[in-house]
Design a protein that fits this description.
Ubiquitin-like (UB roll), 6-stranded mixed sheet, disordered N terminus, 3-stranded mixed sheet, binds FE2/S2 (inorganic) cluster, DNA polymerase, domain 1
Length: about 250
């Protein structure tokens, strides 16, 4: 079932020296070299610098914070590589550039501290396949996979997902070939209005990755956090069963 636990996964407080990128992190391949692992907070006035060059002589931040946009950052520090970290005295943290791997592609995204992942996907990146129903972790419409685990993206702060692999409904198909789950939802009419469908399909995709041959009870349990206002549950379950069959055939 989707959840938003990441909200409470605090990272260690900032240090002047950036930590090395972890193995297999998407950030490793980014253009920021050895300073890719942590968040890059841009002070007020440079808020629109999404994807801008961040290199020697450019002031960026490497601080974690609590959200809200008015936190005071520590004084700036210049590291050995010439990059100045921190936010200049008197400026507040208003914007950050984070590296997200979205559907297999690294993206530098300018986000505000309070923005949810769903909001960033839809409004910053124009990826409207992720739907927002309740916006408070109740309906599952906004489900995406983060490092393979379903999450309610309305309740995950985008800024905390630095370096994570995000899978959205736009990433399910390979080119023009639908995934087994997408095809099965089509074939079994596992949708009516379609508003919940992207979340249902992401949840089903995660289920079939961990349990390729679930019985009906397991399917209903896995999708219990994904509500369908159209009450299309019988067809949704049939679609997941068909996808499982196609996967194991
Ligand atoms: S759970 Fe995120 S929009 Fe409902
Ligand atoms: S198909 Fe309409 S809400 Fe599920």
């Amino acid at each position: 079932m989707a959840n938003g636990n990441d909200l409470f996964d605090e990272e260690p407080a900032d240090s002047a020296t950036p930590e090395k990128p972890a193995k297999n992190k998407a950030a490793k391949s980014g253009p920021l070299g050895g300073v890719t692992r942590r968040r890059f907070l841009v002070g007020a006035g440079t808020a629109a610098a999404a994807g801008a060059a961040v290199g020697t002589g450019v002031t960026v931040g490497v601080n974690s914070f609590g959200g809200g946009g008015n936190e005071k950052a520590p004084a700036t520090t210049t590291a050995a590589n010439g990059v100045t970290y921190g936010v200049p005295e008197g400026q507040s943290i208003a914007q950050a550039v984070v590296l997200l791997n979205i559907n297999g592609k690294d993206e530098f995204v300018s986000v505000m501290p309070h923005q949810s992942l769903a909001e960033v996907l839809r409004e910053n990146l124009g990826m409207t396949g992720t739907k927002v129903g309740c916006d408070r972790s109740e309906c599952g419409a906004c489900t995406v996979l983060i490092d393979g685990i379903p999450h309610n993206s309305c309740s995950v702060l985008a800024i905390r997902e630095e370096g994570k692999k995000i899978l959205t409904v736009e990433g399910l198909a390979k080119g023009t070939t639908l995934s087994n789950v997408q095809q099965a939802f089509m074939d079994k009419m596992g949708y009516q209005c379609g508003f919940c469908t992207s979340g249902q399909m992401l949840q089903a995709t995660a289920l079939l990755q961990s349990n390729p041959n679930p019985d009906e009870a397991a399917i209903r349990h896995a999708l219990s956090g994904n509500l369908c206002k159209c009450a299309g549950y019988p067809n949704i379950v049939a679609a997941v069963q068909a996808a499982a069959k196609a996967k194991t055939a």
